Amino acid sequence: MSDASPLDSRPLDQDSDHGAQPLPAGQMQPTELRGVRELFNIYSDLKVPVFLERDAHVPEIDTAYRFNPDVTLAILAGFTNNRRVMVQGLHGTGKSTHIEQIAARLNWPCLRVNLDGHVSRLDLVGKDAIVIRDGVQVTEFQEGIVPWSLTRPIALIFDEYDAGRPDVMFVIQRILERDGHFTLLDQNRVIRPHPQFRLFATANTVGLGNQDGLYHGTQLLNHAQIDRWNIVAKLDYLPRDEEVKIVLARVPAKDNERGQALIRAMVAVADLTRKASPMAICRA
Ligand SMILES: Nc1ncnc2c1ncn2[C@@H]1O[C@H](COP(=O)(O)OP(=O)(O)OP(=O)(O)O)[C@@H](O)[C@H]1O
Ligand SMILES: [Mg+2]
Question: What is the mean pLDDT of residues 183-187?
Fold first, then answer.
């Protein structure tokens, strides 16, 4: 089995590659419990498992990141108790980055895969490819992203899950169960998930498709599958004050009276823009 991620040789999406270094399929596991209050500044006595080493697949920590308590606790339930968690919400609310930033603080290796209507069963499961071995061309099975991740201590994030073709997404039906094994039909092989494998998804819709014209390209999802996600957490835009704090943390030079007034005005305009109905704008 190759250690290089299937994404290393053929990236599905630029966002999905966190360094593309080999990740051992070994017995890497979280070795200490740390408090949620200390890690995420959330009022809770919960303790969560943390890996001691940082692998190249662990996302970089964004020190200005502000965690939504409810969504963070839902995602942490996924990491701690091996639950499948889907985060749903409007664009730019921080769905993808919430999962990544939590993984970053738990030192949990993480792989983000953007789904789109062209991601096929072969991309996810694997396919026979012609490779050169000792100067000779041979046909060899190359694992897709699902079996590759399943055998590793990694959090696999299916980003834009509602853009994936529902018929193709059936390949993950069984691994949505906690200890669901994965059968590689092409290889007559059954894969048991690594104890630290985790699965997350983000979506703009909850599988009802593009109802209000905002999210073209999303699919009507199969509800038997949606039902298999253990937790569906909804993320909204942060309150204005929180957004102001994020901008100020990113642009400290503006942390003065004039700068703060400017940023407050910017955030207010962004808020009004989001509230404006795109359908109303189209008709005007
Ligand atoms: N809570 C937050 N704290 C700091 N920055 C944030 C927060 N939420 C979002 N951001 C920033 O906003 C940007 C958009 O976030 P992200 O890509 O996670 O949104 P999304 O909900 O996944 O959007 P989409 O639906 O378009 O995929 C990122 O640059 C991210 O760093
Ligand atoms: Mg996203």
Answer: 77
Centre of ligand 2 from the C-alpha of residue 273, in Å = 19
pLDDT of residue 278: 62
Query: Given ligand 1 and candidates 68, 97, 243, which is best to mutate, with the most ligand atoms within 8 Å of its CB?
Result: 97
Query: Is 252 a pocket residue for ligand 1 (Cβ < 6 Å)?
Result: no
Q: List the Cα angle 112/113/118 in 5-degree steps.
A: 170
Q: At what angle do helices 69-81 and 95-106 cross, to 10 degrees?
A: 50
What six digits make up the tokens of 190?
Answer: 């059954």
Token pair of 112, please? 């983000």
Q: How many domains does the chain have?
A: 2
Asked whether residue 271 is assigned to any structural domain, the reply reads yes
Does the pTM surpass 0.70? The reply is yes
* CA–CA dist 131, 140 (Å, integer): 7
Indicate whether residue 92 lines ligand 1 (CB < 6 A): yes
Q: Does residue 215's CB lie within 6 angstroms of at least one atom of ligand 1?
A: no
The domain of 65 spans 6-235
pLDDT band at 20 (very low <50, low <70, confident <90, very high): very low
Both 173 and 247 in one domain: the answer is: no
